[in-house]
Design brief:
heterodimer; A: alpha/beta; two-stranded antiparallel sheet; 9 strands; about 30% helix; globular; B: mainly alpha; Four Helix Bundle (Hemerythrin (Met), subunit A); 2 strands; about 70% helix; about 5% strand
Chain lengths: ~180, ~170
C-alpha cells in the first residue's frame, strides 16, 4: 500500500524575498493538503510570526533581504525553547546562493534543496523528515540536527542498528549528555 | 582530553507526529494536486519572467562608460537567480541556461571587482530572445546564442557557480 502523509492541521512558514516564489511554494503545499501557510518576506517578519504562531515547518531561502539565513537559523536553534528550537527547517537555495549552503547547514538546517523546487522533491523530503528523524545535537559550536547522514532516500526502518534507536522518554524526547569533544 | 559538553536530544517534532497520522495523501495524489495548483500560476510566470528580464535590462541600461556599479551587478545577480528558479520550475530550458550564464558572469565580475557592462548586455539580449513572452527561436539559433554565451565565459575564465558549490 502506498505510504501517505497527513498534512491536515500542519502550519508552514514560507520565507522568501520574492512574492511570486512564496506563492508558488504555498500552492505546492496547498496541493499536499496544508491549510495554514504563513508567508514572510524578511527574517524579522518571520521571527515575529514564529513568536506568535504554532508553526510545524519552516521553508526558507538561503539568503534573506535583512539578515543572513545563517543568522535566522541561529536565532531559531539557539535563542528559543522547544518546540521552536527543534522545528524542522528546509533551506532553498537559488543558483547564485549555492555557496551559502554549507553555512546554513552548519547553522542547523534540516535539509537543503536547490531551486528549482519540484513537488516530487518537496513531498519526498517531507516524508524523509517524518520517517527518518535525526538526533538534535547541541555543542558549543553547533546546534541543530545531526549532520552525519547519507543523502539517499530513507529506508522504511529509519535506524540501521538496534543501538541507534532513540529510547522512549517523557514527552517523547530524551536527552543524553556526553562530555567528549563535539564531533558532529 | 576534555571538551565542551555535548547534548543529544531525540525530539519527536509536531510535524512528524502530524504527518504520520493515519489518512492523508499519497505521493502521486499530492504531486498531482500540487502540479495542478502550480499550473494555475503558470500564466503569471510568463509575466513574472518578463518583469525580471525587464528589470535586468533597465539596470544594464544604467551603465556609464561601459561600467556598472557593484550595487547594479548585485541587483542583476538577484534577478538572474530568480529567473533561473522560475525557468527551471516551468521548464524553459534555453532561458534557464542563459540565466545561469548571466549569474556566472555577473558573479565572476563581482568577485574580481569589475563592472564590465558589455558581457551583461550580451546576456540580456539572450534572455530577451528566450523570454516565454517572445517568439520561440529555432533550436539551431538557440544553440548558437548559448555557444556565444559560453565563449564570453571562456574569455573571462570564471568558474561557473554550479561547479563552485561542489
Amino acid at each position: 500500500m502506498a505510504q501517505t502523509l497527513n498534512f491536515h492541521g500542519v502550519t508552514v512558514l514560507v520565507l522568501d524575498r520574492n512574492a511570486y516564489y512564496r506563492s508558488l511554494v504555498s500552492q505546492m503545499l496547498r496541493g499536499f493538503g496544508v491549510q495554514n501557510v504563513i508567508t514572510c518576506d524578511s527574517g524579522e517578519e518571520a521571527k515575529e510570526a514564529l513568536k506568535t504562531s504554532n508553526v510545524e515547518l519552516c521553508i526558507m531561502e538561503a539568503d534573506l533581504p535583512d539578515m543572513k539565513g545563517e543568522a535566522f537559523l541561529n536565532w531559531i536553534r539557539r535563542e528559543n525553547k522547544e518546540p521552536l528550537r527543534f522545528m524542522p527547517v528546509i533551506v532553498l537555495s537559488g543558483y547564485a546562493q549555492l555557496s551559502l549552503l554549507k553555512e546554513t547547514r552548519d547553522a542547523g538546517s534540516n535539509l537543503l534543496i536547490k531551486k528549482p523546487l519540484s513537488a516530487q522533491i518537496l513531498f519526498d523530503r517531507l516524508g524523509w523528515l517524518a520517517r527518518a528523524p535525526r538526533p538534535h545535537i547541541e555543542t558549543g559550536k553547533f546546534v541543530g540536527p545531526d549532520r552525519r547522514f547519507r543523502e539517499k532516500a530513507p529506508a522504511d526502518a529509519a535506524f540501521k542498528r538496534e543501538s541507534d534507536r532513540p529510547p522512549e522518554g517523557p514527552q517523547g524526547a530524551v536527552q543524553a549528555d556526553e562530555t567528549r569533544n563535539p564531533g558532529s | 582530553m576534555s571538551g565542551a559538553a555535548k547534548k543529544i536530544y531525540f525530539p519527536k517534532t509536531r510535524l512528524q507526529q502530524l504527518l504520520l497520522r493515519p489518512g492523508g495523501i499519497t505521493r502521486d495524489q499530492a504531486v498531482q494536486a500540487a502540479v495542478s495548483n502550480m499550473r494555475a500560476e503558470c500564466g503569471d510566470s510568463i509575466a513574472e519572467l518578463s518583469n525580471a528580464i525587464a528589470a535586468i535590462s533597465a539596470v544594464a541600461a544604467r551603465a556609464s562608460n561601459g561600467r556598472l556599479s557593484s550595487a547594479d551587478m548585485e541587483t542583476i545577480l538577484e534577478q538572474g537567480d530568480h529567473i533561473v528558479s522560475l525557468a527551471g520550475t516551468f521548464e524553459y530550458e534555453h532561458l534557464d541556461r542563459a540565466a545561469r550564464a548571466l549569474c556566472d558572469i555577473t558573479h565572476g565580475l563581482l568577485r574580481v571587482g569589475r563592472g564590465d557592462a558589455a558581457p551583461i548586455h550580451v546576456h540580456v539580449m539572450a534572455l530577451q530572445l528566450f523570454s516565454p513572452a517572445a517568439a520561440t527561436p529555432s533550436e539551431s539559433e538557440a544553440e548558437r546564442v548559448l555557444r556565444e554565451l559560453d565563449a564570453v565565459m571562456a574569455h573571462y575564465q570564471f568558474t561557473p557557480l554550479g561547479n563552485q558549490a561542489n
